[in-house]
Amino acid sequence: MIEIADCTLDYQQDKKRIRVLDQFDLRINRGESVVLIGPSGCGKSTLLYLLAGLLRPTAGRVMIEGADVAGPRRQTGFILQEYGLFPWLNVEENIRLGLKIRHEALPAARETIERILAEMGLAQYRKHYPSQLSGGQRQRVALARILTLRPDLLLMDEPLSSLDALTRERLQNLLLDIWKKGDITTVLVTHSIEEAVFLGNRIIVLANKQPTFILNEIANLGMGSRTYRNTEDFFKTTNQIRALLEGGAES
Ligand SMILES: Nc1ncnc2c1ncn2[C@@H]1O[C@H](COP(=O)(O)OP(=O)(O)OP(=O)(O)O)[C@@H](O)[C@H]1O
């Protein structure tokens, strides 16, 4: 269980206090794929940073499996829109870096890298440098680097937003496959309603208020297959979220 319990979060700017969260609660069960969606500036990234242990709440607690998150944890992976690859390292070296930092034994590391390269369709690009890759390929390398570390929690902040529509769809399929393999909890921030409905088994819609609150939560029971995009359920759920966001924007 992952818990944001009674959390208040203030930012300071020019001697002014901005309260982004006020006694905010969110509970995420192991193995869920939660999506956070809401208007720009409502606090989605702030919630991810709290879960990542990169930000401490002003009041309240953030806990994973009952333990307070006091800082970044080994088993949490964080994927950002910018891929965070080192331009002077090739694909293989970029992926190996995470394992190197953790001092994993070389034979085990080699095996892991080979498996992930194959799974992510990157084997043929292993000697390419980031500048020689497309945006979608770069994001796959970034994902591969994180997955070699076997995270139990994967946090993603608009990871696909700079990709073209088809590449984005392919990577959404890949993220769905990764989640379906199990043993991982994912929390995704996105502005795309379709992406939220395709990838979230629970969609948290945040209000356009400061501090924000949960406007609604949608249990998206039909998700889990690539064909979900073409179903009536999918369209119904996207419309439901669109209506919530539009209604929230007017308030
Ligand atoms: N370091 C900071 N100092 C001051 N204010 C901040 C800081 N980081 C974020 N904020 C403010 O806190 C609010 C929430 O920011 P946050 O980035 O969490 O929103 P968001 O929902 O992720 O936005 P977007 O969808 O535009 O990425 C915004 O009003 C933002 O301006």
From TrEMBL:
Keyword terms: ATP-binding, Hydrolase, Nucleotide-binding, Transport
Gene Ontology MF, one: ATP binding
SUPFAM superfamilies: P-loop containing nucleoside triphosphate hydrolases
EC number: 3.6.3.36
SMART domains xref list: AAA
InterPro entries (UniProt xref): AAA+_ATPase, ABC_transporter-like_ATP-bd, ABC_transporter-like_CS, ABC_transporter_ATP-bind, P-loop_NTPase
Record-linked PROSITE patterns: ABC_TRANSPORTER_1, ABC_TRANSPORTER_2
ABC transporter domain location: 2-233
Protein name: Taurine-transporting ATPase
